[in-house]
Amino acid sequence: MRVDFHTHIIPEHIPNFVEKFGGERWPTLEKTCSCGANIMVAGNVFREVTDQVWSPEKRIKDMDAEGVDIQVLSPIPVTFSYWAESEAAEEMSKIQNDFIAETVKQYPKRFIGLGTVPLQDVHVAIKEMERCIHTLGLKGIEIGTNINGKNLDDPAFLPFFEMAEKWEVPLFIHPWETVGRERMPRHNLMYTVGMPSETALAAASLINGGIMEKFPRLKVCFAHGGGSFPYILPRLDQGWKVWPHLRQTSQPPSYYAKNFYFDSLNYDPLNLTYLIERFGYEKIIMGSDYPFLLREINPGKVIDDTSELPAEQRQAIYGKNALAFLNIEIKEEIIK
Fold first, then answer.
1. Residue 2, SS3?
2. pTM passes above 0.90
3. Is residue 161 one of the residues assigned to a domain?
4. Fewest CB atoms within 10 A around its CB: which of 6, 143, 206, 260?
């Protein structure tokens, strides 16, 4: 069984929040044809998309063609809208969460849903997280790597992580508003360099800021194989060692990093093997970034190409690990 943990979806019809609330940063979807559209931000094309991004029927057709049994649906990060007033951002979150929940309800054997919350207001974010998990039946929450420039170890977010741990809500952390983006206007370096660096900063912040020590049962998965984080972890350990006056944790970063999960989207068997050796195969989850250009085709290709993987580990990474991360009971009739 193949579970594609990292896929994005957006409603076909989003209200025009620019007209309703003002401001230019709201994303809108402008159709270019019956099977295509542009995601527009501030009057500019943010991303060209096809009906893959809103049509569950199209997604299922692709899944069948590419050997994927289940997709885990999450919002597109541009819709996080952390910059907006919390009331407006809450409405945007609810539209997305309701759409994802309805899609899962329509095709319960093919989709699992993750929600989003307006983390610029932690009280509202906790309220919407509760609705996502306990009312809509979503299985986790996707959040960004920073909130309006605040790293995830900012004290303001402690109540959110506390409740996520208490309610056993898995968190999928996806890069957005990347560090250094003002230096990356060319070559799409924001996607190829900025996002991996931003992810590393988020992971390091959760560890060095003591979040993972305070909440040891918190479940966290990082997109894109954790970006550059796995490869700078020894440097983080060295920093912890030589600057004891900066420590906010009782153990070095690698002690806490063993609790992290990572999707498999790093394209190269050498990188996947490194992830497995450092963190264990149980912490690696298949993910493709469907339906965007940088996605892996077919989903799980890097796992397929890692020829030395034992069958048990391969099957776990294909699907079992994702279900375990999402607290979904694994039944034999499902995985056959």
1. coil
2. yes
3. yes
4. 260
Q: 49 φ, ψ to 5°?
A: -135, 165
- 5 in a domain, yes or no? no
Residue 47 inside a domain? The answer is no
Dist. CA 73–CA 69, nearest whole Å: 13
At 333 the pLDDT is: 37
What pLDDT score was predicted for residue 336?
A: 37
| pLDDT computed for residue 214 by the predictor | 98
Q: Are 143 and 119 in contact (CB under 8 A)?
A: yes
278 falls within a domain: yes
Low pLDDT (below 50) residues in the chain: 332-336
CA 149 → CA 15, 83, 89, 154, 202, distances in Å?
27, 10, 17, 10, 11
Cα(181)–Cα(39) distance, integer angstroms: 20
User: CB under 8 Å to 196, separation ≥6 — which residues?
Assistant: 175, 224, 227, 228
| Residue range of the domain that includes 164 | 76-335
- Between helices 229-242 and 269-279, what is the axis angle to 10°? 40
CATH code, domain with 105: 3.20.20.140
Q: How many domains does the chain have?
A: 1
Residue 334 has what pLDDT?
46
Question: What pLDDT was estimated at residue 67?
Answer: 97
Q: Are 114 and 73 in contact (CB under 8 A)?
A: yes
Left (φ > 0), alpha (ψ -120 to 50) or beta: where does 119 sit? alpha
Residue 167 is classified by DSSP as T
Q: What is the pLDDT of residue 331?
A: 54
What CA–CA distance (Å, rounded) separates 116 from 101?
A: 12
Distance from C-alpha of 44 to C-alpha of 53, rounded to nearest angstrom? 19
Token pair 């620019």 is found at 18
Structure tokens at 179: 């560090």
Residue with tokens 């990082």: 222
